[in-house]
């Protein structure tokens, strides 16, 4: 007899990862394809196609629900995807579309919420229920957890920490319209852009070519060799990130900060970040500022599945409680 499973789909900016998990969140099978998030409609059309393909060719268990995480602003309670970003938005109820098509319960959440769910249930959440999860990749965002609960915000827009101003004197403009936000100073794309912008001002052995991105790894390697351009760009990133972290610590009083995302993978960034953190500000962060111990390639997919498992369990509990009350 096949075991009960969850079909989890992680829609990222560059890829869709689809995985089938057991009811403990362990991944039994997964496939990956390039993603198309040029619009929400394009993403949903691709989503339906990939679920169809999986159902026809790859199922290993008895799928009880479908869970989907995606970029952008999402109402997890009603399954509504409001926007990819403020310039690319259409209110779409993904849950209704997928439930109608596949006759299975469907749950939808933001990708950073999914990663935070995994961190809460499998990671630092086992030591403290008050922490912040941060992701630094192409952009910067995260979620705060207080007393074990993720803060969503009235309009499901909480956690956009990349748009926190960390340098009031900076002339670097953010996509949000303000200057001095942490994302254009500290993210992977932000550091690459800064390397291009400052290229004529500093000597460098870095390959900074027109219309080509400078990788975080190349910047870190050059930093270790004391490359003048890399020193300026990376120190600016580290200072901006440390200001964001310390601001969040003062606002939220977390016991831990956990990082994910491509820029922090490998540990170099977090190791060098520590000296920028003021000990007095950080004195209540009992479990420190560290990388997540969870697999960075699977944390979001696992969280996506665990979100659905929790929803199914709470639904069963309500049904049982209603039966008892009856």
What's the tally of helices?
9
CATH class group of the largest domain? Alpha Beta
**Net shape:** globular
What's the CATH topology name of the largest domain?
Nucleotidyltransferase, domain 5
Largest sheet: 5 strands, mixed
Strand content: 15-25%
- Any idea what the radius of gyration is? 21 Å
The neighbouring-strand order within the major sheet is: 3-2-1-4-8
The CATH homologous superfamily name of the largest domain equals ATPase, nucleotide binding domain
* Mean pLDDT figure: 94
What oligomeric state do these chains adopt? Answer: single chain
Can you write the helix and strand succession as a string?
EEEHEEEEHEHEEEHHHHEHEH
Question: Could you give the distance between the termini?
Answer: 33 Å
The number of E-state strands comes to 13
> How many structural domains does the protein architecture include?
2
């Amino acid at each position: 007899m096949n075991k009960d499973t969850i079909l989890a789909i992680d829609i990222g900016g560059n890829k869709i990862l689809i995985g089938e998990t057991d009811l403990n969140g362990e991944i039994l099978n997964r496939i990956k394809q390039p993603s198309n998030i040029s619009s929400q409609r394009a993403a949903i059309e691709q989503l339906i196609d990939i679920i169809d393909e999986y159902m026809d060719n790859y199922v290993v268990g008895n799928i009880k629900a479908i869970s989907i995480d995606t970029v952008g602003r999402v109402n997890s309670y009603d399954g509504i995807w409001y926007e990819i970003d403020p310039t690319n938005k259409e209110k779409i109820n993904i849950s209704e579309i997928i439930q109608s098509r596949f006759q299975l319960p469907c749950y939808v959440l933001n990708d950073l919420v999914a990663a935070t769910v995994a961190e809460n249930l499998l990671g630092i959440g086992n030591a403290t229920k008050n922490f912040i999860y941060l992701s630094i990749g192409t952009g910067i965002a995260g979620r705060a957890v207080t007393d074990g609960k993720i803060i969503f915000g009235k309009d499901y827009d909480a956690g956009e920490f990349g748009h926190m101003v960390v340098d009031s004197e900076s002339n670097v403009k953010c996509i949000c319209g303000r200057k001095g936000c942490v994302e254009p100073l500290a993210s992977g794309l932000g550091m690459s852009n800064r390397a291009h912008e400052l290229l004529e001002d500093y000597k460098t052995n870095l390959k900074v070519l027109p219309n080509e991105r400078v990788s975080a790894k190349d910047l870190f390697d050059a930093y270790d060799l004391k490359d003048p351009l890399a020193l300026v760009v990376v120190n600016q990133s580290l200072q901006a990130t440390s200001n964001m972290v310390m601001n969040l610590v003062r606002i939220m009083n977390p016991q831990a900060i956990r990082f994910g995302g491509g820029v922090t993978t490998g540990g170099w960034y977090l190791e060098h970040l520590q000296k920028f953190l003021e000990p007095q500000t950080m004195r209540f962060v009992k479990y420190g500022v560290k990388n997540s111990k969870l697999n960075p390639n699977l944390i979001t997919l696992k969280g996506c599945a665990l979100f659905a498992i929790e929803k199914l369990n709470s639904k069963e509990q309500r049904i049982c409680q209603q039966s008892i009350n009856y």
